[in-house]
Design a protein that fits this description.
Number of strands: 0
Low-confidence stretches: 1-5
Order of helices and strands: HH
Mean pLDDT: 72
Helix content: over 70%
Shape: rod-shaped
Largest sheet: none
Distance between the termini: 74 Å
């Protein structure tokens, strides 16, 4: 074989190797870039979900405070105005059960 032909073949093999390495590298870069973009999107979604959970927890706490205030005010009205004891107990128990329900829901949401 002619030395020029072997040199040409070696050069063409090297260039084809370089081009295939370049293609693989570009594909790898595009896959990595795509994965990073999807991870950023997922991170943003998690941030939004975390904010929503915090808002829900605040609302649950406000309801619990409201129920506790209702319970205490009902008992205070009972003591001051001597309202029907059965009605005062029912309203207080409803408020206490509401507090317990909200706390259980809040506890279950953690898991």
């Amino acid at each position: 074989m002619n030395p020029q032909n072997t040199s040409f073949l070696n050069n063409s093999r090297d260039s084809s190797r370089r081009s295939s390495i370049s293609v693989i590298s570009n594909r790898f870069d595009s896959v990595i870039t795509g994965e990073l973009k999807s991870l950023n999107i997922e991170a943003e979604k998690l941030k939004n979900v975390t904010k929503e959970i915090i808002v829900i927890r605040r609302v649950q706490m406000k309801f619990c405070v409201f129920a506790l205030a209702l319970c205490l005010s009902t008992l205070a009205i009972y003591v001051t105005f001597k309202m029907n004891a059965f009605l005062a107990i029912i309203i207080s128990l409803m408020a206490i059960l509401f507090i317990i329900k909200e706390q259980i829901d809040s506890f279950i949401d953690w898991f």
